Amino acid sequence: MATPTIEEYLETIYNMEQESPPAISARVAEAMGVSRPTITDTLRRMAQQGYVTVGEEKQIRLTDRGREVAEALVRRHRLWERWLVDVLGMDWAKVHEEACRLEHALSPEVEERLANHLNRPATCPHGNPIPGMMQPPQADTVPMNRVAPGDKGTVARVSQSSERDPRLLDYLRERGVVPGARFAVTEVAPWAGVITLSVDGATVILGAEAASHVRVSVDQRTGSA
């Protein structure tokens, strides 16, 4: 059985694979806040235990066994986030750390009851899919920092990595940049590193770095050559 520490590594690698592959040892070390020698030793043990493979260029891939453990942990984490927001009414900027503490203690029986109590939600409050839950058809998405002036669309989700930054989540929520919100791009200023949007009639300015953490589906453009 994987230890809580190994589970955290597997969860981190899984999220990297989903958001911005490939997962490499240096990125995992940075995300976990550990040194290069520590990540090297940990990955060696994880490979020996059959959870990952590590390529010559330090690219990390989950094995079937590792993916199974990672998906189970991600599912519990996102179910807890859903419960904390929907049932307890917590701010979506504060639930990540709470879910991290709770996810390791959830038994399969309680997990199933929790999922049923929440009506088996497809996503966490930040819009990220919950593994093992029925998913509706997904539109193609792009990071918001790749939109063009005149684009219109819908906010799909906020990246898992951004959940570690409550200030960013607060900023997005206060301005209505949340899953399901409609937006229109009014200006893209790469020299200034900002994107100007209209969200529910209000003007929102996002820095390019912040925008890179927001995935959006863009309406099909018309009138193009």
Largest sheet: 6 strands, antiparallel
Instruction: Look up the CATH topology of the domain at 142-218.
Output: SH3 type barrels
CATH class descriptor of the domain at 142-218: Mainly Beta
Measured distance between first and last alpha carbons? 57 Å
- Beta-strand residue percentage: 15-25%
* Widest sheet: strand ordering: 4-9-5-6-7-8
Shape: globular
Can you put this structure into words, describing what you see?
The chain has 225 residues and is an alpha+beta fold. Among the domains are: 4-62, Winged helix-like DNA-binding domain superfamily/Winged helix DNA-binding domain (Arc Repressor Mutant, subunit A, Orthogonal Bundle), CATH 1.10.10.10; 142-218, Ferrous iron transport protein A (FeoA) (SH3 type barrels, Roll), CATH 2.30.30.90. The protein has eight helices and nine strands. The protein has helices at residues 4-19, 25-32, 36-48, 64-86, 95-102, 108-117, 166-174, 208-211; strands at 23-24, 52-54, 59-62, 142-143, 152-158, 182-189, 194-199, 202-207, 214-218. The strands form two sheets. Strands 4-9-5-6-7-8 form a six-stranded antiparallel sheet. Strands 1-3-2 form a three-stranded antiparallel sheet. 29% of the residues are buried.
